[in-house]
Write a structure and sequence with these properties.
- The chain is mostly helical.
- It contains 14 helices and nine strands.
- Helix 6 packs parallel to helix 8 and helix 10 packs antiparallel against helix 11.
- The N terminus and C terminus are likely disordered.
């Protein structure tokens, strides 16, 4: 997912911590990173600088592989698990995982939540998952939500990815209360009312005066968060059409809030068949990452008819964006293919997403295709383009003093 505003918050935090100058305006375009500032670890997916998105992109890649029957390389899984701090938290990237985490290391909820989801899905990492869950619960805000960094103001994206991680970790999300508030209460507070403009959408955070502005990125995240979904998404039975926006009780009927958000996303994509990135001073551009997330959100609420046109648009236009953006983008597309009706990860717009994803990292131990085990894919260095800034994630240009903050950010519904 393209977490513009959340990553902008990270940028501001990093500037304060580093004593650097003010952050630059966010950009929807990925930033060139031809020469990484750190050595690329052998087990890491992608060849671009992992400083701001290493754990995120590794987690998405492993989640996507697991979802399509690929057994990742041991060193890829070991790299991710080795990034965890003793207290259970993860930072965006630790160049020297052998060095203990200290107070100067900026750990964050999003990297921790994504890694938790990946390790829980892969199995055999119960200890790491328990430690991460314990840490995430310990930094829950009094309004029931989470910010990007511990103690930061709650936002829809962070709250949603953490909720998905905690659900994967065996927690009953509605019962996780701080100050009497649950994660669903925090998301409810960011829902635009049904009797106004952009009814059903979600804001990333309130404005300075408490106003709520619809945000597609935050809305797609909140849909999945309210459903207790992890990042992979899930294919649901058809719902004929979006339900009318209705007020909902966060503690009893979070799925109504999810339906409201999905309905708004369907309307937002109805005209062009995709979402559009609109930033001050820049020409409007198709928003590939958020369109992918929106399709997963629609499919996870059963709005398969409304997801059809965006799906076909993405199938016809994803290639260059994904090639430039790297493994997290390919992972997002795998999530789309798994969740959307009529999509196939091994034949998505005529390309094999599984093969493309596998080629960005260490050769997997095994690859299942149509029930058959095939030889591991050869690693190819075709992830040399632009940084993976488009994905959950998503992509952002931040202060010149701290470089480009890259975040990326779909979900398999827990069975009741």
């Amino acid at each position: 997912m393209k977490y513009r505003h959340r990553a902008a918050a990270l940028a501001a935090t990093a500037v304060v911590l580093a004593g650097a100058g003010p952050a630059a305006a966010a950009s929807s375009s990925p930033a060139p990173s031809p020469t990484p500032s750190v050595a690329i670890p052998d087990g890491l997916y992608g060849t671009t600088d992992p400083t701001y998105d290493g754990v995120w992109r590794q987690s998405l890649a492993l989640l996507a592989q697991e979802s399509v029957g690929v057994t990742p390389a041991d060193k890829a899984v070991a790299w991710l698990a080795g990034q965890q701090c003793a207290n259970g938290a993860f930072a965006a990237f630790r160049a020297d995982a052998g060095k203990p985490c200290d107070a100067k290391l900026m750990v964050d909820t999003n990297s921790t939540a994504a890694a938790t989801q990946a390790l829980a899905a892969l199995g055999d990492h119960d200890a790491e998952v328990r430690k991460a869950v314990t840490w995430l619960k310990s930094v829950q805000n009094a309004d029931g939500g989470w910010g990007y960094t511990p103690g930061g103001a709650s936002d829809a994206n962070s709250t949603s990815v953490v909720a998905g991680a905690l659900a994967q970790g065996g927690e009953t999300v509605p019962n996780l209360r701080k100050g009497g508030k649950s994660p669903y209460d925090a998301l409810h507070a960011l829902a635009l009312p049904c009797d106004g403009k952009d009814a059903g959408a979600f804001a990333y955070q309130p404005g300075k005066k408490g106003e709520l502005a619809a945000n597609a990125d935050a809305t797609a995240a909140a849909v999945l968060g309210l459903l207790g979904e992890p990042l992979t998404g899930s294919r649901q039975d058809d719902s004929a059409s979006p339900a009318a926006c209705t007020a909902f009780d966060a503690s009893k009927e979070p799925e109504k809030g999810a339906a409201n958000g999905a309905g708004w996303l369907a309307e937002a994509m109805a005209k062009d068949g995709h979402l559009t990135s609109a930033l001050p001073g820049a020409e409007d551009q198709p928003d590939y990452g958020n369109t992918a997330d929106a399709i997963v959100a629609l499919s996870s609420t059963g709005l398969n008819d409304q997801a059809e046109a965006p799906l076909r648009w993405l199938e016809g236009n994803f290639a260059q964006w994904a090639k430039d953006s790297g493994p997290a983008a390919y992972a997002q597309l795998v999530f789309v293919a798994n969740a959307a009706r009529g999509a196939d990860a091994r034949d998505f717009g005529g390309q094999d997403l599984v093969k493309l994803l596998n080629a960005t990292g260490p050769a997997p131990k095994a690859v299942e295709k149509e029930g058959q085990s095939t030889a591991p894919a050869e690693k190819k260095d075709d992830d040399k383009g632009l940084s993976p800034a488009y994905t959950i994630g998503g992509g952002l240009l931040v202060g010149a003093a701290i470089g480009f903050v890259l975040m990326v950010r779909g979900r398999k519904r827990r069975q009741s």
